[in-house]
Structure formats: structure tokens, C-alpha cells
Specification:
By secondary structure, the chain is α/β, with parallel strands linked by helices. The chain folds into two domains: 201 residues, NAD(P)-binding Rossmann-like Domain (Rossmann fold, 3-Layer(aba) Sandwich); 213 residues, Rossmann fold, CATH 3.40.50.720. The protein is built from 18 helices and 14 strands. The strands form three sheets. It has a six-stranded parallel sheet with strand order 3-2-1-4-5-6, with helices on both faces. A six-stranded parallel sheet has the order 11-10-9-12-13-14. The protein has a two-stranded parallel sheet with strand order 7-8. Strand 5, helix 6 and strand 6 form a beta-alpha-beta unit. Helix 1 crosses helix 3, helix 9 runs parallel beside helix 12 and helix 11 runs antiparallel to helix 12. The longest helix has 32 residues. The radius of gyration is 24 Å and the shape is elongated. Bound molecules: nicotinamide-adenine-dinucleotide. The site of nicotinamide-adenine-dinucleotide has 26 residues, from helix 1 and helix 5. The site of nicotinamide-adenine-dinucleotide (NAD) has 26 residues, from helix 1 and helix 5.
């Protein structure tokens, strides 16, 4: 089928490459000219495991091409996936102007009926707004064409996005007409033939809600375990063991029960706020989610409180920051908790050396007073404390004796519970780890 993808960012490029891999004829369109030039030159503009190889393959096979021209992208498409950003506004509501602009390109350029699929995460009832906008604009051009709008939420996780897209846990399609359901079923048939998974066919509003409810639930799980972590710290218990034992219960599950620096990235923080906002607009106060958000903001401040406790005054202290990406496997730093940690420490006058195996380029030039280093050891050498912000495997592999050797003060603030605190303590290190008994070297 002929597939058009508007917005080839983290979701759109993966959608485009995977749709092409499934055998569809795909065009990826973006209004960011430099992004399209990068793609046209054979490069992928961001790091995502397996994406560069897949893109090169499907471009080479002639099934994926890129353009900045909306008319070329939309003209004879069967399905147009809208994959543009939906960032938060100051009041927590999502900014849907990019979605509206993408829909406007369809209304302007489509030459026959198209299925417009929302893949961007949008609040419930956005489909109706898109349908209305499409109808108005099509009407103003003389009318005659009726487009379908479907909700096809995206559940990929950055870091494992290609695998998640080609082997999803489920596919959700919300449509309000039999024709649109049929077209979407044909789009996903090659995927379902390769990988059997539940295919949830529902109405547009329900599909939109499934996405917000899923992300809000996962964020709440993280804030829940972070609250338990605070109690463990006060009571002298171990949150890791609590989470492991809870996770053995099939009704609970272990995933997303990692106490730490809280959630970040371009989705959870904004989707939680957007869900609170749309609920309020509909007349429901989603107090539970307001608390999820509050606990998360508190979790991000946890390392700062630990540093003040262990190092006292932070002005002119040299602090090593390990990890900037919002999670391992990606160079995405959008709403990364590490950035808030960096900002808070700079505000206290600390001198920072920051390492990340792939994300440094994303923050180069952002801070004049922060040193970016290519090797983790260069951040650690001579530091008064280290704060782990992203749980990259290469940090896990650092030996406690090496940490002890490199640091000037033996202070470790392990905000991702990467290391075994007892093992570190055995090498003379003072360790703050999340929701676990705090171990300080005797006499310190
Ligand atoms: N990143 C994720 O892990 C993820 C997962 C699931 C869902 N989502 C949702 O998917 C959506 C996109 O997220 P993303 O991370 O891919 O964003 P992104 O910022 O990486 O990509 C968005 C792209 O859209 C382009 N764009 C904006 N307006 C356009 C227009 N009118 N015409 C053409 N191109 C336009 C931008 O230039 C950009 O390249 C968001 O709603 C997000 O919440 C993201």
C-alpha cells in the first residue's frame, strides 16, 4: 500500500522504515529541511539501535524515500501517518498546532480519500477535531473528498524502538468506519503474519484513551515505587528486594518498579500532564496523576539532597555526572532528569564534568561552564562525588576499587541503583543509593 509519514522524528522515521520493511511503498515527509537532507545523504539524524541499518536497507530496496514536499507525500497515499510532536504548553495541555498543520497538508494536497492515522500522542477527542478541520478545509477547496481519521497510538520505547515496532505487544486501531478499519487491517496484515499479537480494533476515542492511560499507568508505577523508596530510606529497608518480591506477583509484574531518578523523556512527563489536563477539561480531577507528577519532581531532586548531606557545601566542588540520556540505548535528552540535576548543581556553584556514551552531542554548547568528557574515567578522576543519572551498562562495569582510586572524596550518589552499595562500602566508599540503607564510611 502507499504510505505517507508526516514528521520523520523518533516515531515517524521508525514507522516509515518499519512500514517499508513490511513491504509498503513509503514516503517520509518532514518540514525540517536539514533532517530530510541528512536522511537523503544516507545518515540517520539520531541514535536508535538498528535504525540506521534498517533505513539503509529499505531505502536501497526502493521502498522508502524522503521529501520536504507535502504535495508529493500526500497526493496518492492510502494512509497518512501523522507523527509530529505534541509538546506540553505551560498549562500542561499539549500543543496540537503541529497536528493541525499536518492535517492541513492532507486537506490541501490529497487527491482522493485518505485514511489519516494519528500516531502522535493526543488527548481523547482530537480525532474529531482533525476530522472537522479536514472537512472544513476540503470544503473550502470545493469539497467532494471525505477523509477517514483513525487513532493508531504508538507504544514503542526509545532504545528498543525498531524491535518494539516490528514485534509489538499489541496493535491498537481506533476507527469510526468499516472502510477505515479495513484499510488499517491491510496495513498491519504483513506485520501480523510475521508476529502474532493482539490487534485491538476499537473506536477513535477509546484508542486515544488507551495511549494516555497506558503511559500514565507506567509513570504512576514508577512514582509509586519511588514513594516506597522514600519509606525504605526512613525505615532502613531495601526497595530493590521489595520491588523484586512484588514483581513475582503476576498481577503486579516487575517492570517499571525500578526506584531511581524518576521518569523523563519526551513522553511520560508531557503525557501525564496532558492526561490531567484533558480529564479536567472533561470535568474529572485526576488527583492521582497530579501526585504521580509531584512524586516524580521530588525524585529528580533526590541526588541534590544526598550531595548536600554527604558533601555539604556544593560551591566549587567537582562533581562527576554519569549519564545524560533520559534512559540507556538512546541519545535523547528531552526532559532528561540528568538535565535538572545539572541545572540544580550549577545553581549551587558546583563544577561539573559530564559523561554519556552517546548523548554528549545533544548538550554540546548548552552550558559554557560544564565540561563534557569522552571517557567516564575522565569525569571521575579527582571528583568530590559522582552522581549516576543514566544506567548505562558501561557504568555498571566500573569496579569499586577503580571508583575509590579515581574519586578525591569517596562519595557515590547512585540515583539509578546501578551498583551494589555494600560492595562499594567494602572499598571505603560512602554510598547513597535509592531506597536502600545508606552506607557511610565509619568516622566520616
Ligand atoms: N519518542 C517516543 O518514544 C514516542 C513514543 C510513542 C509516541 N510518541 C509520540 O509521537 C509524537 C512524535 O514524537 P517524536 O518523539 O517522534 O517527536 P520528534 O520531535 O522526534 O519528531 C517530530 C517531527 O515532526 C516534524 N514536524 C512537525 N510539524 C510538521 C509538519 N507540519 N509537517 C512535517 N513535519 C513536521 C518535526 O520537524 C520533527 O522531525 C509525539 O506526539 C509523541 O508523544 C513518541
Amino acid at each position: 500500500m502507499k504510505v505517507s509519514v508526516i514528521g520523520v522524528g523518533h516515531v515517524g522515521l521508525i514507522t516509515a522504515a518499519c512500514m517499508a520493511d513490511l513491504g509498503h511503498d513509503v514516503i517520509g515527509m518532514d518540514d525540517d529541511r536539514s533532517k530530510i537532507e541528512t536522511l537523503a545523504s544516507g545518515e540517520v539524524p539520531f541514535y536508535e539501535e538498528g535504525l540506521a541499518a534498517l533505513t539503509t536497507k529499505v531505502v536501497g530496496e526502493g521502498r522508502l524515500r524522503f521529501s520536504t514536499d507535502a504535495a508529493e507525500a500526500v497526493a496518492d497515499a492510502d494512509v497518512v501517518f501523522i507523527c509530529v510532536g505534541t509538546p506540553s504548553r505551560d498549562d500542561g495541555s499539549p500543543n496540537l498546532s503541529y497536528v493541525q498543520a499536518a492535517a492541513a497538508s492532507v486537506a490541501t494536497h490529497a487527491t482522493s480519500s485518505v485514511v489519516v492515522a494519528e500516531k502522535s500522542t493526543v488527548p481523547v477527542r482530537t480525532g474529531e477535531r482533525i476530522r472537522h478541520a479536514l472537512a472544513l478545509q476540503t470544503q473550502s477547496r470545493g469539497g467532494g473528498i471525505v477523509h477517514d481519521v483513525v487513532s493508531n497510538p504508538e507504544f514503542l520505547r526509545e532504545g528498543t524502538a525498531v524491535e518494539d515496532t516490528l514485534r509489538p505487544d499489541r496493535v491498537v486501531v481506533g476507527a469510526d468506519s468499516a472502510r477505515a478499519h479495513e484499510v488499517m487491517r491491510r496495513i498491519y496484515e504483513p506485520l501480523l503474519a510475521r508476529h502474532a499479537c493482539p490487534y485491538v480494533a476499537t473506536d477513535v476515542r477509546t484508542a486515544e484513551l488507551i495511549k494516555h492511560a497506558s503511559n500514565a499507568f507506567l509513570a504512576t508505577k514508577i512514582s509509586f515505587i519511588n514513594s516506597v523508596a522514600r519509606i525504605c530510606e526512613l525505615a532502613g529497608a531495601d526497595v530493590q528486594t521489595v520491588a523484586d518480591a512484588m514483581g513475582h506477583d503476576a498481577r503486579i509484574g516487575r517492570a517499571f518498579l525500578n526506584a531511581g531518578l524518576g521518569y523523563g523523556g519526551s513522553c511520560f512527563p508531557k503525557d501525564v500532564k496532558a492526561f490531567i489536563h484533558i480529564a479536567a477539561e472533561l470535568g474529572y480531577d485526576f488527583g492521582m496523576l497530579r501526585e504521580t507528577d509531584r512524586v516524580n519532581r521530588e525524585a529528580i531532586q533526590w541526588p541534590i539532597r544526598q550531595l548536600r548531606r554527604l558533601v555539604w557545601n556544593l560551591a566549587d566542588k567537582e562533581i562527576a555526572i554519569l549519564g545524560v540520556a533520559f534512559k540507556p540505548g538512546t541519545d535523547d535528552v528531552r526532559d532528561a532528569p540528568a538535565l535538572e540535576v545539572i541545572d540544580a548543581l550549577r545553581a549551587e556553584g558546583a563544577r561539573l564534568r559530564v559523561h554519556d556514551p552517546v548523548a554528549l552531542e545533544q548538550i554540546r554548547g548548552r552550558y559554557a561552564d560544564v565540561e563534557l568528557v569522552e571517557k567516564a574515567e575522565d569525569a571521575l578522576r579527582g571528583a568530590h562525588a559522582v552522581v549516576v543519572c543514566t544506567e548505562w551498562d558501561e557504568y555498571r562495569a566500573i569496579k569499586p576499587e577503580r571508583l575509590a582510586e579515581l574519586l578525591t572524596y569517596p562519595v557515590v550518589v547512585d540515583a539509578r541503583n546501578l551498583w551494589d552499595p555494600q560492595e562499594l562500602a567494602d572499598h571505603g566508599l560512602t554510598v547513597a543509593s535509592v531506597g536502600r540503607p545508606q552506607i557511610e564510611i565509619p568516622g566520616a
